[in-house]
Design goal:
Layout: E1 2-6, H1 11-22, E2 26-31, E3 47-51, H2 61-64, E4 69-72, H3 87-103, E5 110-114, H4 124-138, E6 144-147, E7 152-153, H5 158-170, H6 174-177, E8 186-187, H7 188-199
Parallel strand pairs: 1-2, 1-4, 2-3, 4-5, 5-6, 7-8
Length: 210
């Protein structure tokens, strides 16, 4: 299949590109940075890296015309308003632009959005933006899937591994398990595999908010 990933050069996007290439799919990554200089593994040579900013240009549009799936892996965890980095701009606006383009196609690609199952109170605005983006998608008429991962762990982010292990420990303690019941840590590799299962027509537990 022909799969386009927005944010393919990011934390989740690179793992997803790698997994889909391993499964023999045609993969195009669209991001503001194109192909990162730090990616030198063999699989990266099979990805079509496009340098495009969905918020500021339309160079990305031609890649979507013949796509089977379009995956939105764009996102930020924290805002930096003084630099113009906000949840509205980097979570909601890309979805709005992709949705507008796909809606205009006679045979639009299937769309997959990475939302979130839950987030702690300090990330309340983050979850609000995710839910707003979900609502935009629900109002469209093209086929779509929304996935709801929680904490994503990977050794590239040591704090995520520590946090994930802590949550798993708390889930075993009656006094704490209520507070962490909505958080199911998943490795970046597992997330990439679950999304691959979805695009290949298999079921995934991530397609329902838990």
């Amino acid at each position: 299949m022909n799969i386009v990933i927005f944010g393919g050069s990011g934390f989740i996007g690179t793992a997803l590109c790698k997994k889909l290439i391993q499964h023999k799919h045609t993969v195009t990554s669209i991001s503001r940075h194109g192909r990162p200089d730090t990616l030198t593994e063999e699989w990266t040579n099979y990805v079509h890296w496009i340098h495009s900013d969905i918020l500021n240009d339309t160079a990305w549009q031609s890649a979507l015309i013949h796509a089977d799936w379009v995956i939105d892996a764009i996102g930020i965890l924290t805002e930096k308003p003084n630099k113009g980095i906000t949840y509205e701009r980097f979570i909601v606006e890309p979805v709005q632009r992709m949705s507008t383009f796909l809606t205009a196609q006679l045979q639009p690609a299937k769309f997959l959005f990475l939302s979130a199952n839950a987030a702690p109170f300090p990330l309340k605005k983050y979850m609000s933006a995710k839910r707003k983006a979900e609502q935009v998608i629900h109002e469209q008429h093209f086929p779509y899937t929304i996935v709801y991962p929680s904490l994503i762990m990977d050794k590239q982010r040591p704090t995520s591994v520590i946090g994930g292990k802590a949550i798993l420990c708390f889930k075993k303690l009656p006094i704490f398990k209520h507070f962490v019941r909505d958080y199911d840590p998943i490795t970046r590799e597992q997330l990439a595999m679950e999304i691959t299962n979805i695009v290949e027509g298999r079921q995934s537990f991530l397609t329902e908010r838990r």
